[in-house]
Amino acid sequence: MSAGTRVQPLIIGAGIAGLTLGIALRQRGIEAEICEAAPELHPLGAGIWMAPNAMQIFGRLGFAQPIIQAGAEVERVALYDSRLREISSSSLARVREKFGFTIVAIQRAELHRILLDGFGSRSLHLGKRLVSIENHLAAPTAVFDDVTSVSAPYLIGADGIHSVARKLIRPAALPRRTGQLCWRGLTDFDLPREFRRCTVEIWSARSRMGIADVGHGRAYWFLVSSGIVAGRPRPSDSIAELLEIVKDYDGPSRDLIRATPVSAVSEIELTDLAPRLPWSAGNVCLIGDAAHPTTPNMGQGGGQAVEDAWTLARCLAEYPEPAQAFHVFEMARFKKVKTVVDSSRRLGALVHSGWPRVRNFLFRLAPEELTMRAMERLYRVDSLV
Predict the structure, then answer these.
(1) Is 268:256 a contact under the CB 8 Å cutoff?
(2) Which CATH number is 43's domain given?
(3) Which of 282, 165, 174, 265 is nearest to 223 (CA)?
(4) Which pairing describes strands 10-12 and 33-35: parallel, antiparallel, or unpaired?
(5) In which domain, by residue range, is 131 found?
(6) Strand ranges inside the chain, DSSP E
């Protein structure tokens, strides 16, 4: 990628948000270039649940069927206590009937591969780690750590939760801690029949575990605990630490963790960012986790990134001035994003409140119709209309 001014818009970050935006822009006749910090693209991450809001957009972009074939469609979502007594269970048949899709559980690496294949390599530039952005009111110039710089008519920061682009727009924004650690793993595992085609969460007093079949004989799991301090000395045997957390869990939890190689387990502290505008300044705009990182409690981090990409591509195709398109984009997306980020944070706090009997009682009382209406509001994509 040569230095200088480019005719094409520039996207920073080749994750779910950046690649989806590049594909959506191309569908509307706008060719963009993507700069990615990593020098090489390797399969990363464990699993992800792509909700029906994202799947509807992937359907419009032509990627729904490859994603479904690479993953596993979910027919039911279920909550259990640590003794595998049901707290709640909801069929997704009504969701599929209304939106044409259900949740798809898929390996992140497979989803990334499908999007990379869809965007192609011609306009993808690796080893371009953003350092700063200059001249954002006119033709933004991206400055990279290899001492190159590129100017573009506008620039989109899709560079994730630790976004460099965000420093231009919200320099004082600091991640909010939750006091919760999350481990994720992916492994070959034969789940019990009742765990297949189902997203399962098992709730204990101060921890919870999610399990999903991601297809092709593989299982994805995550474990969240509020009883371990971030930044502690890492144990020599991390699997033993996890097994101690789930020692009172019935079902496949312990066997699933034992079956996972240590190299396939990641650990992060759950954080988010208070949902506030602006997401743009001049001819620079943020999307996805760069704009509004959220906790994963509602399974919507990827879904909201995909909605961002679709909506922003539509705005950029309809409005001649990038700054105007960015403003319309912010107005179109902020209300829903704020609802997701705030609701996800409250849900995480409730689940880890230390009152498991009260929590479980309240969730058992929730009417099925109320749950389904909440799902339908979450999965509706207004910009598809």
Answers:
(1) no
(2) 3.50.50.60
(3) 265
(4) parallel
(5) 4-72+108-174+273-354
(6) 4-5, 10-12, 33-35, 47-50, 72-73, 76-81, 86-91, 104-107, 124-125, 130-134, 141-144, 149-151, 155-157, 176-188, 198-203, 207-215, 218-225, 265-272, 280-281, 284-286
The total of structural domains in the chain comes to 1
Using CA atoms, how far residue 28 sits from 23, 305, 313, 319, in Å, is 9, 18, 7, 12
Interacting residues of 236 by C-beta distance below 8 A, sequence separation 6+? none
SS3 352: coil
Structure tokens at 371: 């749950």
Per-residue pLDDT tens for 327-338?
999 999 999 999
User: Which residue, among 183, 261, 272, has the nearest Cα to 225 in the 3D structure?
Assistant: 183
**Is 255 inside a domain boundary?**
no
pLDDT tens track for 194-247:
899 999 999 998 899 999 999 999 999 999 999 777 777 777 678 999 999 999
Pick from 300, 332, 303, 304: nearest CA to 316:
332
Structure tokens at 384: 């598809």
User: Is residue 25 domain-resident?
Assistant: yes
Position 100 in a domain: no
Q: Which residue has the tokens 């200059």?
A: 134
Model confidence over 273-285: pLDDT tens digits? Answer: 999 999 999 999 9
CA distance 295 to 204: 19
